[in-house]
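Lecture notes, part 5. Sequence design as translation. It can be helpful to think of inverse folding as translation between two languages: the language of shapes and the language of residues. The source text, in structure tokens, appears below.
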């Protein structure tokens, strides 16, 4: 019997049903929800031949370990995605845009980074296996479907991965409050991997040293730094904007 995991919330569940329904083993929805969103999920699941279970809130709470689920949970087959950075880079026909998150521990931040990555065309998000959050139910919920569209590559050694990317001709650009370049003036063309550190501490020393360039986001207010997911969204937007103008 294959292992299962759970997706929670309407965005994550609907995205999975629309994009990769073959791995959905069942839908659990609270009997208390009779609104349009609930009906749409039920009708979509049933049209795909997926069994829908009407349960009470206590059953949903047990399935999700108490996470906020909005009244809907999808049980999906846990899959090992055998993608690698090499295979993704080999398949690209345009300069890659990657995001490496070194030490992000808050699932809400990772989910928000994935959502921005989907919005701005990131080819893959790279995260470390240890001392960082993985893709769990909360991440999938916050990402609003992006876990189904953005490849997430988990690596055991961030430094080695960065060196491998350099060998493939990818520029490593660290987002750093003390960066030597301003985001407003930086050249963001060509193959780029944005590198961002974890909450609070930012980029680790070795990670910072392995970056080819360091770029700061100019701030006008009294706040000294930005949340990692906000910073990631700004950096990715600036990259996509510059590339769309042919800079």
């Amino acid at each position: 019997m294959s292992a299962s995991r759970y997706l929670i919330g309407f965005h994550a569940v609907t995205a999975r049903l629309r994009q990769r329904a073959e791995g959905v083993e069942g839908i659990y929805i609270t009997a208390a929800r009779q609104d349009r969103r609930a009906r749409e999920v039920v009708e979509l699941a049933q049209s795909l031949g997926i069994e829908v279970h009407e349960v009470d809130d206590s059953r949903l709470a047990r399935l999700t370990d108490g996470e906020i689920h909005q009244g809907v949970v999808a049980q999906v087959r846990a899959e090992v995605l055998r993608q690698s950075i090499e295979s993704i880079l080999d398949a690209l026909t345009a300069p890659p845009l990657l995001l490496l998150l070194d030490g992000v521990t808050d699932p809400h931040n990772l989910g928000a980074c994935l959502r921005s990555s989907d919005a701005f065309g990131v080819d893959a998000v790279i995260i470390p296996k240890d001392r960082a959050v993985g893709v769990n139910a909360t991440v999938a919920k916050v990402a609003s479907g992006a876990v189904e569209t953005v490849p997430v590559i988990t690596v055991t050694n961030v430094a080695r991965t960065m060196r491998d990317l350099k060998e493939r001709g990818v520029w490593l650009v660290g987002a750093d409050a003390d960066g030597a370049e301003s985001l407003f003036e930086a050249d963001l063309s060509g193959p780029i991997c944005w590198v961002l550190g974890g909450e609070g501490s930012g980029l680790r020393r070795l990670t910072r040293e392995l970056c080819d360039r360091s770029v700061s986001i100019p701030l006008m207010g009294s706040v000294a730094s930005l949340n990692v997911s906000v910073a990631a969204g700004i950096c990715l937007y600036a990259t996509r904007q510059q590339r769309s103008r042919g800079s």
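The translated text above is only one of many valid answers, since several sequences can fold into similar shapes. The first strand starts at residue 4 and ends at 8.
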